[in-house]
Amino acid sequence: MIRINKEFEVIHRFRNGESIRKISRDMDIDRKTVRRIRDRYQAGIDALDDAQNEKEIEAATEQLVLERKYDTSNRKKRTFTPEVEARMSELLEKEREKDRRLGPHKQALTAKAVYEILAEEGYAIKYRTVAHYWSKMKVKAKEAFIK
Q1: Which end of the chain has less neighbouring CB within 10 Å, N or C?
Q2: What are 89-112's pLDDT values in tens digits?
Q3: Whole-angstrom Cα distance, residue 147 to residue 143?
Q4: What mean pLDDT do residues 71-86 have?
Q5: What is the mean pLDDT of the chain?
Q6: H helices of the chain, where?
């Protein structure tokens, strides 16, 4: 994804008359990306020119100015597969069993150790993903005792 300030620079250069290829070459951005930014900007300008009432002007201005929103609700988890989750659950269960036998100890299984185990077993997953899900899995339910 290209940063917003780079989008503004592309638009600025386009308005100053530079070609798509020159902008692409100077900023080290793909020509198709530069063209997409230019087309989106031009569509916003056209919508602003065609606006006839205050509501349409406001909508066109928001289209030009506001940052784009991405729909992430339908994305699939590519690296945190059910197999990885099952393996992490096994490791967590072994860790809890060790805690029951030894009590709290200093050599507890960390997210880094879990990542290294998974990497050795050939799973293509990054440390940050492992750390995120490991911390979620380790959270215990709060217990309350009533007299």
Answers
A1: C
A2: 999 999 988 888 888 777 888 999
A3: 13
A4: 83
A5: 84
A6: 4-15, 20-27, 31-50, 54-65, 82-102, 111-120, 127-138
C-alpha distance from residue 134 to each of 99, 108, 109, 121, 123 (Å): 16, 13, 10, 17, 15
Domain ranges of the chain: 4-65, 82-138
How far is the first Cα of the chain from the last one, in angstroms, to the nearest whole number? 57
Task: State pLDDT tens for residues 53-70.
Answer: 888 878 777 777 665 666
Q: For residue 144, what are its two tokens?
A: 């309350």
| CB under 8 A, 24+ apart: contacts of 86-95 | 87/118, 87/121, 87/123, 88/114, 88/118, 88/130, 88/133, 88/134, 88/137, 89/137, 91/117, 92/134, 92/137, 92/138
pTM of the predicted model as reported, rounded to 2 decimal places: 0.49
Cα separation of 113 and 118, whole Å? 9
Q: How far apart are CA 20 and CA 26, in angstroms?
A: 10
Q: Are 10 and 37 in contact (CB under 8 A)?
A: yes
Evaluate whether 29 touches 38 at the Cβ level (below 8 Å): no
